[in-house]
Design a protein that fits this description.
171 residues, two-stranded antiparallel ribbon, 11% strand
Length: 171
């Protein structure tokens, strides 16, 4: 099956490629398109059209940069949720959580080295390196981790885990 593509996030005030990868259909819904230069893109699922889970651009700060991005598709979230649950079940030290600060909000930047070294949950690239912004501001961490926790039969919301419980503080 062809997987829908998310082209990532772009600076609010900078150049972006959204028009090459997204268009609005007759119903007003944003859909993924394949640039003509790529041919059929290897689509193996007839009549499949990917669309972002949210129809509008999502804006947010990652690594201190003001970025916009279209959301990932429901199909991408479904696949990644199942994969995350399987990995958390297979590897007992991998906790089904994402990095949050003392107020329970997603940490949108590289973790300090000592916190990263001790962290045992799911991370984005931007949690590891300052030159990365993926999966970007549109990525719905609560949807991913909440869905994986539901599959695993875990009830606690990943956003309310304390930094200490996540391995992000010492003491």
């Amino acid at each position: 099956m062809w997987r829908s593509r998310n082209i990532g996030a772009y600076r609010v005030d900078g150049e972006n490629r959204f028009a090459q990868w997204y268009q609005t259909n007759a119903d007003g819904k944003v859909v993924n398109i394949i640039p003509k230069r790529l041919g059929d893109g290897g689509i193996r699922t007839p009549n499949f059209t990917g669309h972002p889970a949210r129809n509008e651009l999502v804006r947010g700060m990652i690594q201190g940069k003001d970025l916009v991005q279209f959301d990932y598709t429901p199909e991408q979230y479904a696949a990644l949720t199942k994969l995350t649950a399987a990995l958390c079940q297979t590897f007992p030290k991998l906790k089904c959580q994402y990095p949050v600060d003392a107020e329970g909000k997603l940490i949108p930047h590289k973790l300090p080295d000592d916190a990263w070294k001790n962290y045992q949950g799911v991370l984005g690239h931007y949690h590891i390196q300052t030159n990365k912004t993926d999966p970007g501001p549109a990525f719905d961490w609560e949807r991913l981790i909440g869905g994986a926790r539901k599959i695993l039969g875990q009830q606690q919301s990943p956003a309310i885990l304390s930094p200490k419980a996540q391995g992000l503080s010492h003491g």
